[in-house]
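Local shape tokens:
==================
===
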Amino acid sequence: MFRLWTKMCDVYAGQLEDVGEVTKASTYLVAIKKFNEAAMLLLKNNLFREALAVVKSQDKQNDEIILEITKTWAEYNVLHGHPKEAAHCYLSIGDVRNTISCLIKIKQTKELSLAAKLARYIDEDMEESLVVNILKTDYFRHHKWNEAQELLKNHPKLNYLNMWTSVHEAMFELDPKVTHKAIKNWICDVSDEENCSILNYILEHVEYKPDYYDKLLKIVGSEFISDASLLMPMITVFLAGQLCLIALQYQKTGLLTIDSQKRLIKCFALAYNYETVYTDSNSKFNKILSRLILWIFPKGPLTLDSYTNFELNDDLMKSIRAYLCYTCFSWLKPLYTSIKKKLDSPIDEDNYFSEVIILTQQFQLLFNNYIHDIMDVETSNYFKAKKEIERINQLLTSSSSTTNTNTNGTFNEKLIGCVKTMKSVEENENTKLLDSKVIITSKGNDLKSLTENLKECNIDNSTNFNDLCAYKNQEESNSFCISLQNKEINNLLNNN
């Protein structure tokens, strides 16, 4: 009788399966103690939870079937876009690598942190990559430096990343107020206790070890990888990494080595490119090039010992000085404009005139000291010739379709007029720097910007600064600046 009932239940379960009653069919199989068959029936129909329940209800569980069910369930979840559930499945069967893969797909800090903890036991490179990604995309971006420190406590082998975190935090702690007053005091060499070398600050306040350099070198990267959605956060992360490497080399050698200078130039170039593209940036970290220059040269642009700790390399020094010069002159118009607004007020007018005179003297010194770093003769001549060739080719190309020969064999007067009216090289000067130098484009009125700003402040300066560039030796240049300065002072006295 029992055998008949067992056989009938088995047959009935098959009939139920045929009509889609899978769950009911599995109950009949369980009733006759065909647990494995019931589990496989449920598994075949993607009823994973029920299949596991059936297998685990036995006194002696079949581990192979449990493994097969769980793995199939995990693959199903991955295929249908449920990485979190898939991670649970893989973790339950001890498949750590696939668990990490699923957690990474979630792209949430909590899951990424768990993935990093798991990677710690199977793959140190994966652990490092995951932790660095969390720092960059979340903790650095949102200034969660304390959370970053807590994260790194779970990864003792990555303690060198604490330096990167601390330097990134220091960049915002040192955050100089890039105001007209701060820049004016810096240019005029007025001592300011708030200005300090960021390298000295890092070495005094940030925990580091000499072996951090090689470890950080692998992950910081030598080139900036742009991300349009996270541009400014990624810039600050890149700068923090480069400053770590520069500071460690500085601590070891006492110098800004050639390698450090190259890194510094990359930082300046990145900041320069950002400022020229996003001129009206409202970022908390705007005027980034000015900040970097203030951090590297806290004593001012005209201090004699500013470059004593730089390893000698003329080309690199020229590029660094060019960025410094650009930074100073980018503040020329804003500074004179701010003083001009003060001149409209009758209060302490003499003091404001004194500011104009002092500022003019400083910019003359800056011009004398740095102009040859920006406009060297060879580079200027090269780009003048290149620009002229391009202009002539463009004229010939545009005129070729309209060029006709008349019956007397003479060319169209329109083409002759174009050729005759070509501007001279000096009138259309484009000066650019090779090998990472600052690109400065001069177009007619741009060369007169200094003169126009002086005129706005009631200073009659009829001398074009372009003449100053024509002097071939320093003595002629200095005497010219002295005469210009005396002329400006006399004009001020006459106006008063």
About this structure: The domain at 2-106 is CATH 1.25.40 (Serine Threonine Protein Phosphatase 5, Tetratricopeptide repeat). The mean pLDDT is 78.
